[in-house]
């Protein structure tokens, strides 16, 4: 059972691969099933109700595949739906991601932190509570960047258009005093080089893949669910076009990969 049952990881599209990358490093023996909900990307501008419905469909799919754990590798879906998912599947280990506000509050000298995320994440009560709890004294500048999600989905990680799309919002928050930048959407680490170039070399860019992977490892270990040996595996599936996901993921993860489709019942 343990050897065959996967850990489910999902996002609206390919952004969650930035988290999956860290999970593979921390848990090299696991069998990972990554689902890109590409038929419905982006989530960032959609209603809470819609994002909840998709989260439930994908969680139910992971359960049908006997997943031991599920990682919601999407800030937007975590903000909208993680509480609902935990009520729906109380026996499943469910890990979410949220913007790195706490470390940012520790790192800032200027007392100003910039957060790039989706509209859905930044407007959510869960994000407001996070800021209130972890950074009540810090000035937090919010910047929704739906265009960055599109760039990553289209594989446009370099070139003048991508550079311009990244430079404007980064410059704006830097000029407003932000000395730490939070990448509060899992798509954005794939634009890290452009963001760093626009922000300046010493500016911390905070993402959450590695801490989430460590937390997942800890949760599995505590429950005796960790696979400590054997070859790891990566299965990629999408609610959209399998050949597109295979091409996108191969490029983003730097290795040739194939992909399949999620059965109709969960699409
Ligand atoms: N990658 C996602 C996040 O972390 C969602 C982006 C989107 O679909 O708009 O928020």
From TrEMBL:
It holds the Pfam family Asp_Glu_race. One of its GO terms (molecular function) is glutamate racemase activity. The active site is at 74 (proton donor/acceptor), 185 (proton donor/acceptor). Pathway: Cell wall biogenesis; peptidoglycan biosynthesis. Its EC number is 5.1.1.3. GO terms for biological process: cell wall organization; peptidoglycan biosynthetic process; regulation of cell shape. Keywords: Cell shape, Cell wall biogenesis/degradation, Isomerase, Peptidoglycan synthesis. The keyword Isomerase applies. The keyword Isomerase applies. It comes from the Bacteria. It catalyses: L-glutamate = D-glutamate. Substrate binds at residues 11-12, 43-44, 75-76, 186-187. PANTHER family: GLUTAMATE RACEMASE (PTHR21198:SF2). Belongs to the aspartate/glutamate racemases family. Provides the (R)-glutamate required for cell wall biosynthesis. This is Glutamate racemase. It comes from Achromobacter arsenitoxydans SY8.
């Amino acid at each position: 059972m343990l050897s065959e049952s996967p850990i489910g990881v999902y996002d609206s599209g390919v952004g969650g691969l930035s988290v999956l990358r860290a999970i593979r490093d921390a848990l090299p023996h696991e069998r990972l099933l990554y689902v890109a909900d590409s038929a419905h990307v982006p989530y960032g501008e959609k209603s809470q109700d819609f994002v909840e419905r998709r989260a439930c469909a994908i969680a139910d799919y992971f359960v049908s595949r006997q997943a031991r754990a599920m990682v919601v590798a999407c800030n937007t879906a975590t903000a909208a739906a993680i509480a609902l998912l935990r009520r729906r599947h109380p026996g499943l280990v469910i890990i979410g991601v949220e913007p790195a506000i706490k470390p940012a509050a520790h790192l800032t000298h200027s007392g100003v932190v910039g957060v790039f995320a989706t509209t859905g994440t930044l407007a959510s009560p869960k994000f407001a509570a996070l800021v209130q709890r972890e950074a009540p004294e810090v000035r937090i500048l919010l910047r929704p960047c739906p265009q960055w999600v599109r760039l990553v989905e289209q594989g446009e990680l370099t070139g003048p258009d991508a550079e311009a799309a990244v430079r404007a919002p980064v410059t704006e928050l830097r000029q407003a005093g932000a000395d730490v930048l939070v990448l509060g959407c899992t798509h954005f680490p794939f634009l890290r080089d452009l963001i760093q170039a626009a922000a300046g070399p010493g500016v911390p860019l905070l993402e959450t893949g590695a801490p989430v992977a460590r937390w997942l490892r800890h949760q599995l270990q505590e429950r005796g669910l960790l696979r400590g040996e054997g070859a790891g595996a990566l299965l990629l599936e999408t609610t959209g076009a399998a050949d597109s996901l295979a091409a996108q993921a191969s490029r983003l993860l730097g290795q040739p990969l194939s992909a399949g489709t999620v059965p109709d019942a969960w699409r």
